[in-house]
Design brief:
Elements: H1 3-8, E1 15-18, E2 21-24, H2 32-39, H3 47-70, H4 75-86, H5 91-99, H6 105-111, H7 117-125, H8 131-137, H9 143-151, H10 157-163, H11 169-177, H12 183-189, H13 195-203, H14 209-215, H15 221-229, H16 235-241, H17 247-255, H18 260-272
């Protein structure tokens, strides 16, 4: 049985083991301040004490996220516990709080200004991240924070449009794949300097026809391949791709009107041959 499953079945009188400590289930969250103090290094600790704290941290971190996400206590206790975690000098404690969907919005807002970028990325990836916080994180100095926000399926469309113009390739690529990316942004990304991003647009079934028309003439064969494979591509574009200079693009364009199994096989063949993300379009292993 998983830790989460065990925790869901806990009731009054049951205990949870954290490291060498047994804590009653209803009291776990109010005990967090003690746990946090035990997890924090103190000046003057001997090597033995440091090693013991490190072992305890590993044991606690393994279960703590599951515990705070599943334990059944009143909202007031939860807010106090998350506030304690967020105020901890230990960044891992703050990260646990930032990633939890039970974390109060007030605490998430505070953690969005944390000095450690991983904590801010945890907030950015949180499904309950407030919209005003999303707009702050969309212009964060660290690209990994912005990428986490672009990969969050609950990020609003206005933020995704901002991220679609980002200077970082990974952020733009995540924005290009986001379901809330606007049509205007998709059209602009269809002219992006990175072919991987243009490929992401070509694979979208909701890609605007103007974007697909532009991508049908893309210099990168893999982009044209996915335009040909896209079921929303117009018959006019598909006829043009049937005359493409690349064999696989022509084959995909011709197979698009055949039974679904043949299209799936052709698409699977193409996907298996795709170069890794970040490889240059001039790579000798491309189409």
């Amino acid at each position: 049985m998983t830790t989460s499953a065990k925790l869901r079945g806990l009731g009054q009188g049951n205990t949870i083991t954290l490291g060498n400590c047994e804590i009653y289930a209803p009291e776990i969250l109010v005990t967090l301040p003690i746990i946090i103090r035990c997890r924090t290094h103190h000046e003057g600790d001997t090597n033995c004490q440091l090693q013991r704290r490190s072992r305890l941290r590993r044991a606690w971190d393994h279960q703590l996220e599951s515990i705070i996400d599943t334990i059944d206590v009143d909202p007031g206790t939860i807010e106090v516990a998350f506030a304690e975690l967020a105020a901890s000098p230990d960044p891992n404690s703050r990260l646990i709080s930032a990633r939890s969907e039970r974390c109060p919005l007030r605490v998430l807002t505070e953690l969005a200004n944390d000095w450690w970028w991983e904590v801010r990325a945890g907030v950015a990836s949180n499904a309950r991240c407030p919209h005003q916080v999303q707009h702050t994180l969309a212009i964060d100095d660290n690209p990994w924070v912005r990428r986490a926000l672009a990969e969050n399926q609950n990020t609003d469309s206005a933020c995704i449009d901002i991220l679609a113009k980002d200077s970082d390739f990974g952020v733009r690529d995540a924005a290009a794949e986001h379901p809330r990316c606007s049509k205007d942004s998709l059209v602009k990304l269809a002219s992006d300097g990175r072919w991987e991003i243009r490929r992401s647009i070509a694979k979208r079934q909701d890609a605007p026809l103007t974007a697909l028309a532009l991508l049908a003439s893309d210099p990168e064969p893999w982009v044209r391949f996915f335009v040909a494979a896209n079921p929303t591509t117009s018959s006019h574009l598909r006829q043009r791709l049937e005359q493409d200079s690349n064999t696989k693009v022509r084959s995909m364009a011709r197979h698009a009107s055949t039974p679904a199994a043949k299209v799936a096989n052709a698409l699977a063949f193409g996907l298996n041959q795709l170069p890794a993300r970040g490889v240059s379009a001039d790579d000798p292993h491309k189409l």
